[in-house]
Design a protein that fits this description.
Elements (H helix, E strand, L loop, with lengths): L22 E3 L5 E4 L4 E4 L5 E4 L2 E4 L6 H15 L8 H5 L23 E8 L2 E6 L4 E5 L10 E3 L1
Antiparallel strand pairs: 1-2, 2-3, 3-9, 4-5, 6-7, 7-8
Pfam family, one: Lcl_C
Protein name: Lcl C-terminal domain-containing protein
InterPro entries: Lcl_C
Length: 153
């Protein structure tokens, strides 16, 4: 005898499909699309090379002027509008359940638990996101930090 509530068909308003993953890694492993924000990230910190298996090399350190030059260089070489992220954009990929680094390293391998530049000024200072604890701070732009580039989809 079949249970009256047993229904192998999805009920109206429900979906039998799996929810879309937040982060999608490109086939070549170089980019990550964030389905929540619509932003596309370089998977590896600048100074590293992406592959389908992760990141190779050592993350570079840049002062703000060098970081902006790096973004322009990558944009020219790829033909894509890469830029430094705004503070809220960079903070959106922080994973508060993790520490040192406070980011999903399966999605963003090679990320050190260290500060990353943003393009958001704070008076004479610049905002950055620390991936050691996932917090936002400001400091002088001449102090070297890491860089992760972003673009709109």
């Amino acid at each position: 005898m079949q249970n009256e509530n047993d229904n192998s068909q999805p009920q109206e308003g429900t979906s039998a499909e799996q929810p879309t993953a937040r982060f999608i890694i490109s086939e070549d492993g170089a980019e990550v699309t964030d389905n929540t924000t619509g932003l596309i990230w370089r998977r590896c910190p600048e100074g590293m090379t992406a592959s389908i298996h992760g990141c190779i090399g050592v993350p570079g350190l840049y002062n703000l002027e060098e970081a902006l030059q790096q973004a322009a260089k990558v944009a020219r070489s790829t033909g894509k509008p890469w830029r430094l992220p705004k503070v809220d954009e960079l903070q959106s990929i922080v994973d508060p359940t993790r520490r040192d680094p406070s980011i999903d390293t399966d999605i963003f391998p090679g990320t050190p638990g260290a500060p990353f530049f943003t393009s958001s000024p704070d008076g004479a200072l610049i905002w950055y996101v620390s991936f050691y604890i996932g917090k936002v701070f400001s400091e002088y732009s001449a102090i070297p930090n890491h860089v992760r580039l972003v673009r709109s989809s």
